Amino acid sequence: MKIIYSAKSKELGGIKMSGEIDLPLVLHQMILWVLMHPDDAIYLAPEYEKVRAQADDRNEAQKTHCGQDI
């Protein structure tokens, strides 16, 4: 799918993405649903934070061995 995404915030700055993103269709559907239904989607935020923290921890653990950078 080709996507174009642009967001701007005074606090966080901005981001622009475009191009062909190779994601499963269900993820594109989820993104669109979140954008179209933010009041319902906000309830997903706690689970998103949990999954993201687990992924961040896993990625950091893979960068080190016994506290030493690999």
What layout of secondary structure does this protein have?
Blueprint: E1 2-9, E2 13-20, H1 25-36, H2 38-41, H3 45-63, E3 64-65, E4 68-69
Antiparallel strand pairs: 1-2, 3-4
The strands making up the biggest β-sheet line up spatially as: 1-2
Shape: extended
Largest sheet: 2 strands, antiparallel
Number of helices: 3
Average of pLDDT: 87
* Helix share, percent: 40-55%
Instruction: Give the terminus-to-terminus CA distance.
Output: 36 Å
Note the run of SSEs as H and E.
EEHHHEE
Spatial extent as radius of gyration: 16 Å
The unreliable regions are: none
The total beta strand count reads 4
Description of the structure:
It is built from three helices and four strands, in the order ββαααββ. With 70 residues, it is of the alpha+beta class. The termini are far apart. The relative contact order is 0.09. The protein has helices at residues 25-36, 38-41, 45-63; strands at 2-9, 13-20, 64-65, 68-69. The strands form two sheets. Strands 1-2 form a two-stranded antiparallel sheet. Strands 3-4 form a two-stranded antiparallel ribbon. The chain is extended. It is 50% helix and 29% strand.
